[in-house]
Amino acid sequence: MNVIESKPYEMLIGERWCAGTEGRTFDTFNPATAQVLAQVHEAAERDVDAAVLAAHEAYQEHWRKTTPAQRGRLLRRLADLFERDREKIAWIETLNVGKPITHSLDSLKAMPASLEYFAGIIPAARGETIPVANQDVLNYTLREPLGVCALILPWNYPMTLTVNKLGPALAAGNTVILKPSEVTPLSTMALARLIEEAGFPPGVVNVVNGSGATVGERLVTHPLVSRVSFTGGTVTGARILASTAADVKRVTLELGGKSPLIVFDDAALDKAVAVAAGDLIKNSGQVCIACTRLLVQETVRDEFLARLQTRLKAVRVGSPEDPATEMGPLVSATQKDRVEQYIRIAAEEGALPAQYGSVESAPEAGFFVKPTLLLDSKVDMRSAQEEIFGPVQSVISFRDEDEALRMANRSRYGLAAVLFTRDGGRALRMARGIQAGSVAINTGVRTSFDAPFGGYKQSGIGKERGLEALYENTQLKNVKYDMSV
Ligand code: TXE
Prior knowledge:
- The chain is α/β, with parallel strands linked by helices.
- It has 15 helices and 24 strands.
- The strands form 7 sheets. It has a 7-stranded mixed sheet, sandwiched between helices. Strands 9-8-7-10-11-23 form a 6-stranded mixed sheet, with helices on both faces.
- The structure holds ligand TXE.
- The site of ligand TXE has 27 residues, from helix 7 and helix 8.
């Protein structure tokens, strides 16, 4: 399927598809081959300003006055168009992100349902009447949109994250500017075409491309942008928080993680192994909620490890275009270097790195790293504390429930946690004690568009997805009316 445009990708600003006013372009790559895949026009600062202005005017003149039914209809139309082009978008992600095609197709399955879900819950953005002490006063709330939202996207799940930020922002009545990662902009550009075809008025959705330091920074500090929703690394998230502080903007941050998978001695071991292996393999471990610390009770450690190693030896690493491939490359040379550096650090601090799987049907130049376990890790090692963001897991043993909980919480992050035990009381005690935004018991953490998601501690601020995402895109006004007058 020929899904990549041969001419440089233009940006969408208001009703115009355009190049940047300074005429610059940048390359985007196929990580499986390290070859240039396409060129993309880059926004200059005044293009970012033009996009913000277009979004502001669309908000003021039109979008904030639309009815829930009008916004819902457009979101449903977009859902239908997405379903029509799902396979094409999946191929774009396979070529630009390096996801195996089976995974790209699977991860995009829920996108139309996500858009329909946010279309359906628009009426929930309503206020209430409050029975205040003063009986002469009618006191009520209104839930109102915020205005222009900047949605800043990373490279690991470009389309899923775009859709799950876009749906609630538009449903709540905001207009948006999308800033895809400069590493993986292509699927978002395909979505922008569908947004136009669906009939969204010009300016309601704009897309600008370029680096975080220039285009991203300009966008988040623009005075007409009232909300920033960001997914990416914790360092960048903290930087955005600082950049937006002077204007006291609303900020939602979905950041890094170092999630534990805790295996007790009464665990359903096969399922625990499947979840651990899945987290290592899926998207080459470049998943914020992936469990990267395997905490295993010492009495079952050997058996758990033996089964996990058997599974990992069979992993087919290779070309993402091959339907038999289970794991593709990392997204970029930078990410590959980072992961390899952490594996070296782990060895230096006394862990035992072990690699599995075989690289098949893939050009040597691609950014491949085999599934890696850091055996005999200790909870305080750098490699067990810092986000690596690749197919690497630290294996750590614990003695009892208390130690498991202490180790699970020994992290600056708090995105997710998984635990395997058949003891219901222990499961519930652990679920309460774990400091993380998502906890899964006897299954993996898999986000869904209809349940709230967001981290504790340095894993983020605010919630995305579910009803919470709709609220996150609104502000609440309290009104009182003195009826005695
Ligand atoms: O992401 P960045 P990077 C983690 C992962 C990875 C690390 C670095 O550990 O190794 O982050 O990845 C834009 N103002 N995650 O450097 O910098 C940037 O252009 C405004 C976890 O690629 O976080 C891009 O669109 N925007 C994560 C987006 O921010 C700025 C997923 C993400 O870039 C900006 C990806 C600025 N000052 C990486 N600087 C997850 N939580 O899933 C950058 N950007």
